[in-house]
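Hey everyone, long-time lurker, first post.

I ran two proteins through the pipeline my lab uses and got sequence/structure pairs for each. Pasting them in order. The first:
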Amino acid sequence: MAGDRKLPDGLRPETLAVRAAVDKSQYGENSEALYLTSSFTQPDSELAARRFAGEEEGFIYSRFSNPTVASMEMRLAAMEGMEAAVGTASGMGAILLLCLSLLKAGDHIVCSRSVFGSTLKLLGTEFAKFGVETSFVSQTDLAEWKAAIRPTTKLLFAETPTNPLADVCDIRALADLAHEAGALLAVDNCFCSPALQQPAKFGADIVVHSGTKYLDGQGRVIAGALCASQELVTGKFVPVMRSAGISLSPFNAWVVLKGLETLGIRMEAQSQRALELARWLEAHPKVERVYYPGLTSHPQHELAMAQQSGRGGAVLGFDVKAVDADEARRNAFHVIDSTRLLSVTANLGDVKSIVTHPASTSHGRLTEAQRQAAGIRQNLVRVAVGLEHVEDLKDDLERGLGTL
């Protein structure tokens, strides 16, 4: 792990976040090194042959093996309480790698209909072209999940909390359903990160990450990852990665590696601000409803607090009051466009607070029927809370809410 000193067993996630990494180089660097190289020289042809054949460990080519990427993978897997991880070029690249590695024509997926818009599009449209069918079900209705499972079901896919309505699924119950059917459960842990939630503790087989979000934490790079057993990572994911090249660059891996060091304290501080802002919005006369699992009014509040280490995360949504569909979109746009502090962009996970209109951005490529099925209404506004003073965030949103 670190030089000639092996890390002790039983370290807590906060410690692993700053210590888990590949061995130091001969120079003894305290901050993990950034290896910007496309390939690695081999001592001789025989060793090169064994490494290319997978018979001996060693770095070969940065499309599929690089020390900086390996450090990020090791650290993230340790924080998730899983055996291994593989980095990818983006969060959607991670989901693509997951499906390419585990599924073939004729296989079936059961997926929450409340997941990220691009995930709905990838599974429901792109993979359908290759004979992989997906059934989309209610995030919270276990009976729907169970009824949708077929003999050909190979994967259950959930995102919890969901983007942007913060619906929470029962991870353990879904894991039990998947395993009874001989399938695997994959959980997108983007919103919580391992600082708040470790799906493997509840039976998830695979944890999906967009490192672009909280793992980086400052909106600098695009990255993704899959965490799973060593058998799945080395036997299924890495071979496809090696062929397909959905690779995480060493530089982006290094940025995420450094972001992981402050993940815990950022998530705690941003969750505190999000809860206070959600309570303020819930009491606002121009707000119809607030979507945030930290609120006691949230329908899955108790489940969320049990799965998410007692915190609600840093993303919330709210419906602006409106009398009809035209006014719904107009009022949401007015609130967003009246801000002077929040960043108007479709990202999340930054230390800078972000506001967006999901129906026209993250879920804009869906049909209106698909948006309605996912609960994405035109008056919905999403806020990803950063590290600004919460009173300044309230003042910024009040500019629009107070003038409706």
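...and the second, right after it:
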Amino acid sequence: MKVGDILRKKTARVATVRMNETVGVAAQLMRASNISALVVKDVVRTEGNTAVGMFTERDVVRAIAEHGAAGVNLKVSQLISVQQLVSCSSADTLEHARHLMNRNHIRHLPVIDNYSLIGVVSVRDISTAFDEASAVAKPAVDAA
């Protein structure tokens, strides 16, 4: 099974936040969309709008734990690591996506095709896909 198979079952909208937004705004966006992670975008002169990282509930907790109530006023850019965005493509296998998540200790993986952000897959998405695949593969046992 491929990452693209999961994306076809999900909503097409990808929740994003700009690097210069505050932690408070990012938290409100996550709450309004009932999600636990946002793709962080930055405007790059040569490339336009580009994905540079992920901002998660853990980042919100860290901001408040380290800075108290003032943590909500920090910029998203102050809390994310932008050295190397870990991502996959829609053609990658679920096994590869799971491996990237495990190796990098992350729970959300942006999906980028031809330099464009097309979606995000989560550990839960992959786990559900594996569960559904194994349920289809195993024949039901009849109760006698």
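Reply from user beta_strand_b:
Welcome! Quick read of the second one: The beta strands are 16-18, 37-44, 48-56, 108-113, 116-122. Residues 3-137 form a domain with the CBS-domain fold (CATH 3.10.580.10).
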